């Protein structure tokens, strides 16, 4: 986590975010990056076109987020910080937080998907199976549609894997409900994930397709 905190300090720049209030952006970004469940819930609220989101911790400042869909504006408040972002700025900002802080699961991991967030096509695929919503990760942060947008994971139905006549399953971080079994990892894998799939990926201006400015 310390590596990611240091990386955030390095990449939370006016060049990457095209915004100038960097002290406030760094503060909120560090907070959200250290709260993955909260980060996920806020973005689910945004993509599901909700109007307001509130987080009241037992200890610490309350977080309030207001999504103004008419003005295409987001207001994030956590005392003493208040951010006002356009929808495009919000996607850029959240995309960078995601790139720095989100877990990158090893290949070979088996994960369970959240049924509520699946397309009708995927629901039909899993509806024909008695094995639940489990998929096997084959690839990570791969190009998707253009040179800068990437999909978080490429997967296949577990336990079958890739088979003739089957299409890969494209998985975003928001679709992941839980990790059932983590793939093999060691120092080499961890270094690759951080240096290439995280740091180099950010340096090249790549972001998850989920946060692509529409």
List descriptors.
single chain, 214 residues, alpha+beta, 2 domains, 6-stranded mixed β-sheet, 4-stranded antiparallel β-sheet, 7 helices, globular
Mean pLDDT over the residues: 89
Kindly, what is the distance between the CA atoms of the first and last residues, rounded to a whole number of angstroms? 30 Å
Strand segment count: 10
Percentage beta strand: 25-35%
> Poorly predicted ranges (pLDDT <50, ≥5 residues)?
none
- What class would the helix/strand composition place it in? alpha+beta
Radius of gyration: 18 Å
- Gross morphology is globular
Q: What is the string of SSEs from the N terminus onward?
A: HHHHEEEEHEHEEEEHE
Pfam families: DUF4176
InterPro entries: DUF4176
Protein name: DUF4176 domain-containing protein
Describe this structure as you would to a colleague:
- The protein has 214 residues and is of the alpha+beta class.
- It has two domains: 2-101, no CATH class; 110-211, no CATH class.
- It contains seven helices and ten strands.
- Strands 5, 6, 7, 8, 9 and 10 form a six-stranded mixed β-sheet that branches.
- The longest helix is centred in the C-terminal third of the chain and has 17 residues, at 187-203.
- It is globular.
- 25% of the residues are buried.
- This is DUF4176 domain-containing protein.
- It comes from Candidatus Enterococcus murrayae.
- InterPro entries: DUF4176.
């Amino acid at each position: 986590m310390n590596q990611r905190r240091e990386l955030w300090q390095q990449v939370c720049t006016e060049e990457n975010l095209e915004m100038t209030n960097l002290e406030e952006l760094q503060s909120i970004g560090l907070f959200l990056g250290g709260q993955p469940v909260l980060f996920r819930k806020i973005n689910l609220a945004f993509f599901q076109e909700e109007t307001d989101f509130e987080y009241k911790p037992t200890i610490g400042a309350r977080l309030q987020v207001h999504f103004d869909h008419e003005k295409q504006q987001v207001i994030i408040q956590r005392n003493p910080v208040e951010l006002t972002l356009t929808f495009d700025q919000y996607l850029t900002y959240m995309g960078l937080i995601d790139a720095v802080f989100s877990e990158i699961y090893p290949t070979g991991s088996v994960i369970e998907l959240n049924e509520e967030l699946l397309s009708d096509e995927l629901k039909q695929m899993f509806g024909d199976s008695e094995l639940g919503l489990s998929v096997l990760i084959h690839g990570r942060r791969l190009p998707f549609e253009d040179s800068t947008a990437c999909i978080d994971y490429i997967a296949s139905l577990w336990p079958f894997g890739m088979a003739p006549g089957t299409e890969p399953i494209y998985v975003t971080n928001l679709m992941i409900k839980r990790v059932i079994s983590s793939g093999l990892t060691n120092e080499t894998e961890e270094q690759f994930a951080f240096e290439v799939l995280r740091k180099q990926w950010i340096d090249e201006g790549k972001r998850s397709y989920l946060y692509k400015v529409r």
